[in-house]
């Protein structure tokens, strides 16, 4: 990523947790392990252990899901914080390029199902990120 990564702090995580519990019709709300939350949010920033954005996102989601830091909603908060982390860091790149909602959906579906991007999706991502200027010429190339 060319931009500096923007991380989630403890107060943000708690705010997001509260909103997530309210939006999902409640649950047994509360923090079980404040230290675990703080450690995860701090450790995810360590580039020696998690040098790429994808590794940071994976660690963040895995730890919030498996750490049972909250009384209820640990899987939900893991997904919600993962989506929020993506939003804080990638929305700029999506808005600044030609990635449309359909392409974002295809990328997220591939991510959530743990499937590698197929060749068509890879080409569509490359075209969108370069705004279609890949130097591809010929009858098989359709420029929007």
Question: What Rg, in angstroms, do the CA atoms define?
Answer: 18 Å
The percentage of residues in β strands lies in: under 5%
- Which stretches are low in confidence, meaning pLDDT under 50 for 5 or more residues running? 132-141
Mean pLDDT: 79
Report, as a whole number of angstroms, the end-to-end distance. 26 Å
Shape: globular
Largest sheet data: none
Continuous helix count? 6
Number of strands: 0
Class by alpha and beta content = mainly alpha
The level of helicity is 55-70%
Give the H and E element order.
Answer: HHHHHH
Outline:
Helices cover 58% and strands 0% of the residues. By secondary structure, it is mostly helical. The relative contact order is 0.12.
Question: Would you write up a description of this structure?
Answer:
The protein has 144 residues and is mostly helical. It contains six helices and no strands. It has helices at 10-23, 34-43, 53-66, 74-95, 101-112, 119-129. Helix 1 packs across helix 4 (74-95) and helix 3 runs antiparallel to helix 4 (74-95). The protein is globular. The chain starts with 9 loop residues before the first helix and ends in a 15-residue tail after the last helix. Mean pLDDT is 79; it is low at 132-141.
């Amino acid at each position: 990523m060319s931009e500096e990564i923007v991380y989630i702090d403890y107060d943000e995580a708690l705010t997001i947790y509260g909103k997530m519990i309210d939006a999902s019709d409640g649950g047994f709300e509360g923090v079980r392990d404040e230290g675990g939350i703080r450690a995860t949010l701090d450790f995810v920033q360590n580039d020696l252990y998690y040098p790429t954005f994808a590794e940071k996102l994976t660690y963040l989601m895995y730890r919030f899901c498996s750490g049972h830091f909250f009384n209820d909603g640990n899987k939900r908060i893991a997904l919600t914080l993962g989506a929020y982390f993506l939003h804080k860091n990638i929305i700029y790149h999506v808005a600044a390029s030609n990635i449309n909602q359909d392409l974002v959906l295809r990328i997220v579906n591939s991510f959530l199902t743990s499937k590698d991007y197929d060749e068509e999706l890879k080409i569509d991502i490359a075209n969108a990120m370069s705004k279609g200027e890949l130097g591809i010429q010929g009858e098989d190339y359709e420029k929007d």
